[in-house]
Design brief:
With about 120 residues, the chain is of the alpha+beta class. The chain is built from 3 helices and 4 strands. The chain has a 4-stranded antiparallel sheet with strand order 1-4-2-3, covered by helices on one side.
Length: about 120
C-alpha cells in the first residue's frame, strides 16, 4: 500500500499557554514536523524541527528550550505568528464526523399527509 501524505502549514492562535499546549498535543499525535515563528512582515524568527520518532512522546522535556523560545518571542514581540507544519494523511479525512440523519416533520407536512381529497388530474377510472 502506498503511503500518501502531504504537509500543510497551520497557524496556531491563542494565549501563550494555549499555543504551547497545542504544539505539545501535535507532538504527542506525531504529525507535527516543525514549528515556525514569524513576525508580521513574514520574516522567520524561529524555526525548529519537531520529529521525535516512536519514543518521542516520553521525551517532551527535550523540547523545553523550544517552548521557552516560543514563549519569549510571543510575550515580548506582540506581532508574531506561530505556524506548525504537519503531515496530513490523504486516506483519512480530518473533518470526517459520524452523524445520524433524522427526518423532522413540521405541521404543514402532517397536514399534507392527512389530506383525504383526491388530487388526480384527468378522468377517474
Amino acid at each position: 500500500m502506498e503511503k500518501t501524505e502531504k504537509t500543510i502549514l497551520e497557524e496556531i492562535q491563542g494565549t501563550v499557554q494555549e499555543i504551547i499546549s497545542q504544539i505539545k498535543e501535535l507532538i504527542r499525535k506525531g504529525d507535527a514536523k516543525r514549528v515556525i515563528v514569524k513576525n508580521r512582515k513574514g520574516n522567520v524568527l524561529l524555526e525548529s524541527r519537531l520529529t521525535l520518532g516512536v519514543a518521542g512522546a516520553a521525551v517532551l522535556a527535550i523540547y523545553a528550550p523550544i517552548f521557552t523560545a516560543i514563549t519569549t518571542l510571543v510575550l515580548y514581540v506582540s506581532d508574531v505568528r506561530v505556524f506548525v507544519e504537519k503531515e496530513i494523511n490523504e486516506s483519512s479525512d480530518e473533518y470526517e464526523i459520524d452523524a445520524e440523519v433524522i427526518d423532522i416533520q413540521d405541521d404543514e407536512d402532517e397536514k399534507k399527509n392527512d389530506d383525504p381529497t383526491d388530487k388526480t388530474v384527468g378522468k377517474k377510472p
